[in-house]
Amino acid sequence: MITYLNGDIVEKDPTYLVMEVGGIGYEIKISLNTYGHLKDATKTKLHTHLNIKEDSHTLFGFHELSEKRRFLDLISISGVGP
Predict the structure, then answer these.
(1) pTM score > 0.70 for this model?
(2) Which of 14, 19, 30, 66 could bridge across to 34 with cysteines, CB 3.0–4.6 Å?
């Protein structure tokens, strides 16, 4: 599991960002709340959750640990996905 990433923001969009960590670029899905915190940032640390399904691996990132915990609580409900 990837618990967090700390690195340079290479590309930023309201729904995702690309972060370079150790020479590797990670595409990370983010919320509008996280985007608001990172609007002017060039480096950051994001708490992450790797969602693995049979047809995709999706990395979600959160500026605050509390937002990640709420996300995990929501997706633990049957029928609710990311």
Answers:
(1) yes
(2) 30
